[in-house]
Design brief:
disordered C terminus; 11 helices; 3 domains; alpha+beta
């Protein structure tokens, strides 16, 4: 999907937010109809029936007729597709759309006459009920049948054309690379390269901490609270932009350099879940410490390094060339002799095999095991605890 930055005027921003409100209202109304269905009631109306209901409602209510019919119908079509994806098992259940969080709508129709190129840097796009809105031509505009206009939490408007770019062809060298994802090092390659995802600088993190303290002192509903929230959202948007840019560049480079890319098969949704409370068996109603704060910090580190986004973009750009390997014991197995023991991992960054003495970066060693596919065979072995201070026992060799 090709996305461009939009620069609407103040009046156009008000009109765009009004169209977002209409699209959000129609979506929530369709969701309410769908959620009221039970086994005892008749089936919820489909897309065609809801379009007829929308036509009747527009004829009766002037405030609804003031909005664009195209925007409202596409909101119904998007909801119908979301329901189909949910029943197919590929997406989550459709949820309610909230103001300030889900701001956007989609326009479907021929692109001819809707997009005009002014010069090499600027262009205009025609939006129903809004007019011609300026956007930045950061790349060539693709030939798409629809486009979506969205507004993020930082108040920035974007224009995205629905196109599927072709996958990147393989280099043909037959090289295989393993990618180990981590917290201190975002991605370690089996070639020895260590890649780090850029985030907020130290100065920006201090400002974020200061803004959060100011937010805690602000009165709810005040203008000052809204300004502080906008400043915090701007910092988070900056961090997200840097992460997405790093993922795009890294995934493109890996897809061009290597024929086969092997990554760990991680369940990130389960890994970033909250820890379960631990009731105290001796005192009813009292809970034991469950390291909730430490788990929250780990979750932030996982999400800040873009683990899931990196694999998804690799699957898009290197279609059919991404293999997922079981991550069991990849960090405890020596990539040279295959010996596996807990004592091999001296620290977070140092790997020293107690059998052959191989010394390497722990993340690079794990990436080499992923590239060799050793995690698949490691599941049939039983790891033996070996102290790094003692001499290795040869009975535990792989």
């Amino acid at each position: 999907m090709s996305r461009y930055r939009m620069y609407p005027t103040a009046a156009q921003q008000t009109a765009l937010l009004e169209q977002c409100r209409y699209a959000r209202y129609v979506w929530n109304l369709a969701l309410e109809q769908w959620s009221m269905w039970t086994r005892d009631n008749a089936a919820a109306p489909g897309f065609a029936a809801q379009c007829r209901q929308l036509t009747e409602a527009r004829a009766e209510f002037d405030w609804l007729r003031a909005g664009s019919q195209t925007v409202q119908q596409q909101a119904l079509r998007d909801f119908d597709q979301a329901v189909k994806n949910f029943y197919a098992g590929t997406h989550r259940r459709p949820t309610w759309r909230r103001a300030g969080l889900h701001e956007g709508f989609r326009i479907v129709g021929p692109q001819a006459g809707r997009v005009v190129k002014l010069n090499r840097n600027r262009g205009w796009v025609r939006v129903p009920k809004v007019g011609w809105v300026r956007f930045r031509l950061s790349r060539t505009v693709p030939d798409a049948k629809s486009y979506r206009i969205t507004r993020d939490r930082a108040g920035r408007w974007h224009l995205a054309f629905a196109v599927i770019p072709p996958p990147i062809p393989a280099s043909g060298t037959g090289e295989v690379v393993g990618v180990d994802r981590g917290i201190a090092v975002s991605a370690a390659l089996s070639t020895g390269e260590l890649l780090s995802c850029p985030g907020l600088s130290d100065r920006e993190q201090e400002r974020l901490k200061h803004l959060r303290r100011r937010l805690a002192r602000c009165r709810r509903g005040s203008n000052r609270r809204r300004r502080v929230q906008a400043a915090i959202a701007k910092l988070h948007a900056r961090s997200g932009d840097r992460r997405k840019d790093w993922v795009e560049k890294t995934s493109t480079a890996l897809a061009r350099r290597f024929d086969v890319i092997r990554v760990e098969d991680l369940r990130i949704t389960q890994m970033t879940g909250r820890p379960k409370p631990k009731p105290d068996p001796e005192r009813p109603g009292v809970y034991l410490p469950n390291r909730r704060r430490a788990k929250a910090g780990l979750n932030r580190g996982i999400l800040a390094n873009g683990w899931g986004l990196l694999v998804r973009r690799l699957e898009h750009k290197a279609a059919g060339r991404v293999e997922k390997v079981n991550p069991a014991f990849t960090s405890q197995t020596c990539s040279v002799c295959g010996h596996r023991a807990w004592g091999n991992r001296e620290s977070q960054a140092v790997f020293r095999c107690v059998a052959c003495g191989h010394l390497a970066n722990a993340d690079v060693n794990a990436a080499a095991n992923i590239a060799a596919g050793r995690a698949v065979s490691a599941r049939r072995e039983t790891p033996v605890r070996v102290s790094p201070k003692r001499e290795p026992q040869h009975a535990t060799s792989a």
